[in-house]
Amino acid sequence: MRTITTLNTLADNYTYVIDSAGVAVVIDAGEAAPVLRVLERSRAQLLAVMGTHGHFDHIGGNEELARQTGCAVLRPYDVSNTASELTVGSFVFVLMRTPGHSADSVSLLLSPQQSEPGAVFTGDTLFVGGCGRMFTHSPQAMWTSLQSLAALPLETRVFCGHDYALENYEFAVTVEPRNMAIRARLEQIRALVERGEVTVPSTIGQERATNPFFRAVQPEMKQALGMEGMADWQVFARLRQMKDSF
């Protein structure tokens, strides 16, 4: 059985330790110490640490983890193929190229197992209720990346790189104030935050229903923005511009 442990690292980053049968991999290790504490408790052997992109807050702990555990340091964001597989022990990931936040951004899709749905580690491409800033300055690229994630099975769990969920849904209700699903999701997130709990995982289904950036395709979103007849990516770009100044 796989276990995904979510760690709060740095200011608002999420780091993930995936453990199965005494071995583990780590994704987006902004710092090493919290990961080492988890491994000490679980006594799992760390096989590899990897990042969803090359920004320091997602790989800053990699070298220390390698020194302390002897694990491999993998750089899936250096891959050139649109999609390929990465196998580490019993863990099989599909590497999805998802540029937009950065040119090298990837999302790591962990395949389903028995009755357990798949999981996608989206870094700073897709957040709970939001998406990353576009340091590539290409709304079209980011929109294409988000659409590739939206096409995953609805039950796929979403594990993102930062905890921005509360702010994201506070923004979302200003865009669609009459959307009851978004208001309900905001209250769910508020409750998690008040209890000091993590806001992941979400699911692709939840994001498609309530994430304003996924909802750029919806007629009611275009109407809310006065952008009827505009291309989906243009609606997305407008939403991202609005969020940047929120």
Question: What attributes does this structure have?
Answer:
five-stranded mixed beta sheet, 13 strands, 35% helix, globular, 246 residues, six-stranded mixed beta sheet, alpha+beta
Q: Could you outline the blueprint of secondary structure elements for this entry?
A:
Layout: E1 2-9, E2 13-20, E3 23-27, H1 33-42, E4 45-50, H2 56-59, H3 62-69, E5 72-74, E6 83-88, E7 91-97, E8 106-110, E9 119-123, E10 126-127, E11 130-131, H4 139-150, E12 157-160, H5 165-175, H6 180-194, E13 202-203, H7 204-210, H8 219-225, H9 232-244
Parallel strand pairs: 3-4, 4-5, 9-12
Antiparallel strand pairs: 1-2, 2-3, 6-7, 7-8, 8-9, 10-11, 12-13
Helix pairs in contact: 4-9, 5-6
What does this protein structure show overall?
It is a single chain. The chain has 246 residues and is α+β, with helices and mostly antiparallel strands. The chain is built from nine helices and 13 strands. It has helices at residues 33-42, 56-59, 62-69, 139-150, 165-175, 180-194, 204-210, 219-225, 232-244, and strands at 2-9, 13-20, 23-27, 45-50, 72-74, 83-88, 91-97, 106-110, 119-123, 126-127, 130-131, 157-160, 202-203. Helix 4 crosses helix 9 and helix 5 (165-175) runs antiparallel to helix 6 (180-194). The protein is globular. The N and C termini lie far apart (41 Å).
